[in-house]
Amino acid sequence: MGFKRLLASMGAGGASVETELTEANVVPGGVVQGEVRIQGGSVDQQIEGLSVGLQARVEVEGGDQEVKQDIEFTKQRLGGAFTVSAGAVHVVPFGLDIPWETPVTSIAGQQLRGMNIGVTTELEIARAVDSGDLDAISVHPLPAQQAILDAFVQLGFRFKSADMERGHIRGTRQRLPFYQEIEFFPPQQYRGLNQIELTFVADDREMDVILEMDKKPGLFSEGSDSYKAFKVGHHDFQSTDWAAYLNQWLADVGGRRNWL
């Protein structure tokens, strides 16, 4: 599968650039493969540098409102300087590592609303930097992440929305400057809940799972038991019944707060 985008035209008679992804479906910790194709124009041109990276559109709190900001969260330089001859085609293949913390953008083949992550291409020429359009990728859950998502579905929760927020969750292994929240509507049996927010923060061995309840007004007061964080290993997650685990937590909190 290929996705082509016109990156830049560098002046009259200048070269043009396209980035093509071999496969846009990836998982955290994986690699997105592709190539950058530079088509020479009517004159020779010296390219000072070429790089690819990953960019996310993130919500940033600004005063009384939230604004969207594009954040590049990984970058890879593709070789050094080179010359593109007039009329020639210069092809640069690449394999870009996907950080383990990269947010999920697709679940069960469905694109999550609010998620915008893709590959950017940057060309340096004549001491200027020219950035192209975003080539979108679909980031699918790791098996351990899918197990948690499946547990919510099994309990009757429905997906509401997802977003990426700039900031840091204390006590986690987070290294990126932003994190993802996946929001669910609860089923009827959890009548005291408005929604639950789910966050994954993974590395190559395990992940932190962060859950936060959003209560319905007037049903219970704020408290530490409306927030839960636990660790899940990538290789031993199958030993736990996650639906039962989550239901027990919800039942315990609901019983203490008299909303079940």
Can you tell me the overall shape? elongated
What Rg, in angstroms, do the CA atoms define?
22 Å
Order of helices and strands: EEEEEEEEEEEEEEEHEEEEEH
Q: What can be said about the biggest beta sheet? A: 5 strands, antiparallel
Number of strand elements: 20
Strand content: over 45%
- The CATH topology of the largest domain is Immunoglobulin-like
Taken together, the total number of domains comes to: 2
Mean pLDDT: 86
**Helix coverage percent of residues?**
10-25%
Report the end-to-end length measured between terminal Cα atoms.
49 Å
Q: Judging by the overall fold, what is the CATH architecture of the largest domain? A: Sandwich
Derived from helix and strand composition plus strand pairing, the structural class reads mainly beta
Protein name: Sporulation protein
InterPro entries: Spore_0_M
Organism: Streptomyces maoxianensis
Characteristic key phrases:
Immunoglobulin-like, 5-stranded antiparallel beta sheet, elongated, 260 residues, 2 helices, mainly beta, disordered N terminus, 2 domains
Question: What does this 3D model show about the protein?
Answer:
This protein has 260 residues and is mainly beta. It has two domains: 4-139, Immunoglobulin-like; 143-257, no CATH class. The protein has two helices and 20 strands. Strands 6, 7, 12, 13 and 14 form a five-stranded antiparallel β-sheet that branches. Strand 17 (178-185) and strand 18 (193-202) form a beta hairpin. Mean pLDDT is 86; it is low at 1-10 and 216-223.
